């Protein structure tokens, strides 16, 4: 199978890391907010479908790495790191939910 390679222009890369959807940090924060919402409103969903937590954790890891790369490149995101932003991964709450199963 032939490998397709495409180079993304630097301006597009910068737009993706800094601006698209609010930037990497905003996406990271909202991914974590989504997990908090699911824990608060539909904990039974997470208990019966624990793989959803894995999906969100995988997204979290991608967004975290994008934020690291953005900072390493000296990019300025629309939403900068500050106390409680992005919010921490709600790992202790996830563990509590999993223990209840």
* Fraction in helix: 55-70%
Biggest sheet descriptor: none
Helices and strands, in order, run as HHHHH
Radius of gyration of CA atoms, rounded to a whole number:
16 Å
Number of strands: 0
Structural class: mainly alpha
Average of per-residue pLDDT values = 84
Rounded to the nearest angstrom, the distance between the terminal CA atoms is 44 Å
Instruction: Tell me the fraction of residues in β-strands, as a range.
Output: under 5%
Using the alpha-carbon principal axes, give the shape. flat
Contiguous low-pLDDT stretches (5 residues minimum) are none
| H/I helix tally | 5
Task: Identify the notable features of this structure and list them briefly.
101 residues; mainly alpha; 5 helices; 64% helix; 0% strand; flat
Question: How is this structure best described in words?
Answer:
By secondary structure, the protein is mostly helical. It is 64% helix and 0% strand. Helix 2 (24-41) packs antiparallel against helix 4 (51-72). It is flat and about 45 Å long.
Q: What's the gist of this structure?
A:
By secondary structure, the chain is an all-alpha fold. Helices cover 64% and strands 0% of the residues.
SSE layout:
Elements: H1 10-18, H2 24-41, H3 43-48, H4 51-72, H5 91-100
Helix pairs in contact: 2-4
